[in-house]
Inverse folding.
């Protein structure tokens, strides 16, 4: 089997945690995950969480994180949603209401509307929805989620329209699919 036939998709992150109840509470109540399984691993406990039909878990927590330090080896873990700008605004409100959350930063990469933040144990998290556009990365401009959806859409289009490769997102992913099909046929 060639390397190109072994398609990989990101499936889950497993994080060491100090306070598993606090972290499970945050990821379920604020971010919408469900606990799919939990049990012992040696002296520690593992809790699995998912909110998709095709992943047993997307994130899991293992107790026994050794030192009370900020995470520093992972910049952030991103979760994509098929939701709307209204959903993203509602999420922002829930994050702002949770005193354990820090570093809340709405941002647009042109191809995504994102909210970045640090969870209650300072792990970097990004939650994003697609915009209708592709644009060459990296990009990052402020996202004002207090504006109306129409204003956000217009402002994003205007902000990135002159950037390289700006165009229809569907066309970009169709191109990726063609590229991968050609690669698999090699
Ligand atoms: Fe990201």
């Amino acid at each position: 089997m060639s390397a190109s036939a072994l398609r990989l998709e990101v499936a889950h992150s497993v994080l060491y945690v100090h306070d598993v109840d606090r972290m499970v509470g945050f990821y379920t109540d604020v971010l919408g995950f469900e606990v799919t399984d939990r049990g012992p691993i040696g002296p520690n406990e593992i809790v699995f969480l998912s909110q998709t039909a095709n992943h047993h878990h997307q994130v899991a927590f293992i107790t026994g994180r050794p030192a009370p330090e900020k995470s520093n080896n992972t910049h952030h873990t991103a979760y994509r949603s098929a939701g709307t700008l209204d959903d993203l605004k509602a999420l922002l409100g829930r994050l702002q209401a949770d005193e354990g959350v820090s570093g809340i930063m709405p941002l647009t990469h042109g191809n995504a509307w994102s909210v970045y933040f640090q969870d209650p144990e300072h792990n970097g998290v990004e939650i994003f929805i697609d915009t209708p556009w592709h644009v060459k990365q990296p990009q990052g401009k402020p996202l004002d989620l207090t504006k109306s959806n129409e204003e956000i859409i217009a402002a994003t289009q205007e902000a990135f329209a002159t950037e390289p490769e700006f165009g229809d997102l569907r066309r970009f992913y169709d191109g990726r699919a063609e590229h991968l099909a050609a690669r698999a046929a090699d």
